[in-house]
Amino acid sequence: MNVKRILIDCSDTYIYNLQTGIQRVVRNIVERKDLIERILGIPVLAVVLTNLGYISLDDFLQSKPPNKNKKSIKSKLQYFFTVKLNNDFAYSSAKFFWYTYKKIYYILSNWVNTFAKKPKNIITLSNNDLLLFIDAFWQPLYSENKFFFKMISNAKAQNAIFAILIYDIIPITNPEFLDNLFVNKFRASFKQIIGYSNFILVTSQSEKNNIEYFLESLKLKKPIDYFYLGCDLSKQTESEYIRESIKQLKTKTYFLMVGTIEPRKGYDVALEAFERLWQNGFEKDLVIVGKIGWGVKKTVNRFLNSKYYNKKLFMFNNANDAELEFLYNNTQALIFASKREGFGLPLVEAMQYKKPIIASDIDIFREIGKDYPIYFKCNDPQDLINAILKFQGGNEVKDSGFKPLTWDESVKMMCDRIKELIKDAG
User: Fold this and answer.
1) Is 259 left (phi over 0), alpha (psi -120 to 50) or beta?
2) Could you give phi then psi for residue 182, rounded to 5 degrees?
3) Which of 165, 164, 156 is nearest to 125 (CA)?
4) Calpha distance 175→184 (Å, rounded)
5) In 233-295, where do the E strands start and end?
6) How confident is the model over 297-342, as pLDDT tens digits?
């Protein structure tokens, strides 16, 4: 099939100006749209979904720059529910009202749009266009917006291709780690959007296997392939500020954990291991970097009430890129205690910084890290202690046999997969 144009949907990332893992991936891919164009020999355009259809990202940024106040308000609300209230019911209730509000908003918007005249800069999907969807498909911007799916349906009727990047299906395979409301929303959104897709991209062989197995249970078969995410050393600017409380950690010897604080990340396991070590005179510290998510009330309370908090245990919920780079550069090793991941960016980030890694023994970490990390039994504090003590005996960095990709290399790998998947879709 001859593709005449590729449109990359990056709407949720740029409208809400978020900075979590998926948004970091989206931004890095979008920043390399010219590279994608050169590799594939096809015009590439980043697009943002509005109430009347797609507009180019350039038009969006010129007419409506990212709203920093919106980001600030959202961050403050999330901090209020998860840190101040520290109440899972309040957090879930707030999300329920958010989804309800968005559903009403899009119903009204779609009704108004039937009478609205489309501006000239609206981009219409047409014959042999490829819409490459790389953003968070379960967000209300898409899942509650019937206009979005009507637009996709109309485009496919005109021989447009719809491809989607799935980061993981953890809410489906491991719902015990997540809020029930989110699990139900994700499952419904996944089934809905996957039905429109011509092919699927994923970010690891392990997750490809998980998705194929689930699709089989739905009696669905879709062309699917994987590529690995990239990791470039930070290109921080002079304007990025590093707090004194973080700078002071340079004088300490610490282990680092990076990622949203949520049940599947294994923070409870790490805290249990370190408290046992500290009780027996272990001198090294633990630094945690990640926003607070759902279902960690007991863990967060244990952090805050620990006699080691701000003495040997440090937590930062809103570190910027410069601060994260500083912490990577000065850590003794990364600890990655996750019970389930789709990829695990901190693993390759630590490898890029040539830092040792102590990781839970799960399939994806074996796939990405090979022999680089010291592994411990997942969900086992004592085995993590054993791994830390083993590390103390010799902390040289091993040759893993897996070279982390730069973002340019990642995008090249993605393009190679797209070439083959387009052939299958044809």
Assistant:
1) left
2) -70, -40
3) 156
4) 9
5) 254-258, 285-289
6) 888 888 999 999 999 999 998 888 889 999 999 999 999 999 999 9
